[in-house]
Specification:
The chain has 499 residues and is mainly β. It has one domain: Neuraminidase (6 Propeller), CATH 2.120.10.10. It is 0% helix and 43% strand. The strands form twelve sheets. Strands 10, 11, 12, 14 and 15 form a five-stranded antiparallel sheet that branches. Strands 30, 31, 32, 35 and 36 form a five-stranded antiparallel sheet that branches. It is globular and about 70 Å long.
Amino acid sequence: MSGLRTNLVLTVASVSAAALMGCSGTSPDPQGNELGTVAQDLGTPVVGTGVLDSDDDQSETDISVSNLGGENMITTAYNDGSQGICLPWPCTLPITYDQTNRYVRQGASLMGWSYSVDQGATWTHGKLTPPPGWSVLWGDPAIGRGNNSQNYVFMSNLAVPVANFPTGQGYISGSLEPYLGGACIAKSTDGGKTFAIAQCVSNNNHFYDGGSIAVDNLGRVFFATNDVTAGTIDVWMANSPTSQFNLIANPFPGYAMESHPRIRAWGNNIYIVAQRSGDDVLLINKYGSSWATPAVASQAPHNPTTEGGYVSFLNGKTVRFGPQFSFDVADASAFGNDNIRILFTELYSGKHSLYATVCNTSLQCWEAPEWSTEWESGDQFHPSVAAYGGFIGSPERFEATYWSRYGDASGSTVKLKHGALAVIGSGTPSRVFVTFDLTASQTVCPDWRGYWGDYQGTKYAFLNGLTPKFLTTFTDSSAGCDKYWEYDSHNVHVSAVTF
């Protein structure tokens, strides 16, 4: 079963000199007004406009969907390798690569997004550059919006403060982890078309990793990230879409935490899930006016694979793991006590499979073994869960997307699949997990470190009659893999599919 699939790589029709990024001694456009339209070639980069070339790669996505005045707007954030034109020549782009290294200069940015107003058929691109006081915007994108004020959409990226940027040589060589010291949060007031940096946050320049954004029905905006330096999950809250963010209490006091967190809003509460260090157990908590007591959300023998694990392929490549869990919240099914449905990857019985737990809003959790992929051959990984809240005549629905080696269990290809975390029947309900292919098989194209995008976004997008339609954006290498360097690979782009 396949849906509409469109590539998010853009071609820029025109661009002013003020909007050109990356030239030494120039001032990038602070609003990121580099806009264009999408190519229709399923992952092939657009060449010939002077704006994109074969190294402009995109990966790792999150999604927001807004409805303003009857207009359905889908916005996907991603790690964006486009850098614009470097003029006057000779000059140096903010990010350059060779086979064994990467060089990142002040002004570099991966903070890109694309939006669609035609249900994912075509897309328009935008990008931001670092604000004053910050040298680099460095990915791990998150994006989210509220229910009551859908014109406000928030997007985040990790960031390097000027204070952490090395002096002397003028660039960071190799990993940026020693230099990351916070995150920057951008805000849109038009539903996700355009963004501007609203605020950058930092806990004493600690190394932040990952991000997740949610907005509750009270209009409070939450940004969560892993404070690697402290071994905690930091949560920043703004009391309204126009307020400043402030660091709130630790959601998991007394625990060392290790993973990218995930947060979701339901009503006036925020729910957060993250991975405990040492034993990989998932913990869950919720915030109303304060944090509740954390609870265990995964049960032995099934706990998520540690972030940083990997899958090996026949062609000698490996794909590393980012956060291997995802969840969403909606009304409970006929079973009851399953408002929260969590899907995670675990290496068990010789392969990576997906396992599920369900929790109620009181944070009591149980296993849901019917939603496992133990039966599916090969590895399954990178789950992404999204909920549709339901409407008159159209009940709630949870969908998941994930990568699978089904059909090529020991080979070098994967395909993107989806499955409903479904409950059928009312008197004697049953859980079922029926899966379908979303894409054809493709050969993975990670860099030497194993990076091939650490996650993909999935969201409920729109109603087709009474049928909820979902959309996922994902890392796409279907155009082939012709570069395999330490910090760079190609082709790696972002595509979208609805189902």
